[in-house]
Automatic annotation (TrEMBL):
Similarity field: Belongs to the cytochrome c oxidase VIIc family.
InterPro entries reported in the protein's UniProt record: COX7C/Cox8 (IPR004202), COX7C/Cox8_sf (IPR036636)
Record protein name field: Cytochrome c oxidase subunit 8, mitochondrial
Subunit record text: Component of the cytochrome c oxidase (complex IV, CIV), a multisubunit enzyme composed of a catalytic core of 3 subunits and several supernumerary subunits. The complex exists as a monomer or a dimer and forms supercomplexes (SCs) in the inner mitochondrial membrane with ubiquinol-cytochrome c oxidoreductase (cytochrome b-c1 complex, complex III, CIII).
Organism: Gymnopilus junonius (Spectacular rustgill mushroom)
């Protein structure tokens, strides 16, 4: 029997479909106690103000780095008279 006949076999196709449908996430792969968390970290709870300040500093620093680098490069090249 040739392999092309085996590849077209309905039994092999049925086994492939059943195997793909049988996948389920294990309990270890799920979140603890079935709770869904859309953030990749634990929410700080009562420390919302400090979390907001830290997040704001982090975002402002990351956004300002390209502007600081370009100002430095312009000043170093003599292009900016500041």
């Amino acid at each position: 029997m040739s392999f092309s006949v085996l590849a077209r076999s309905s039994v092999l196709r049925q086994n492939a479909v059943i195997g793909s449908r049988a996948f389920h996430a294990s309990k270890a792969a799920r979140s603890d106690h079935g709770h869904y968390h859309h953030l990749p970290f634990q929410w700080p709870g009562e420390k919302k103000l400090s979390f907001g300040v830290k997040l704001g500093i982090y975002l402002i620093t990351g956004f300002s780095i390209p502007f600081i680098a370009s100002a430095y490069q312009l000043k170093k090249a003599g292009g900016a008279e500041a």
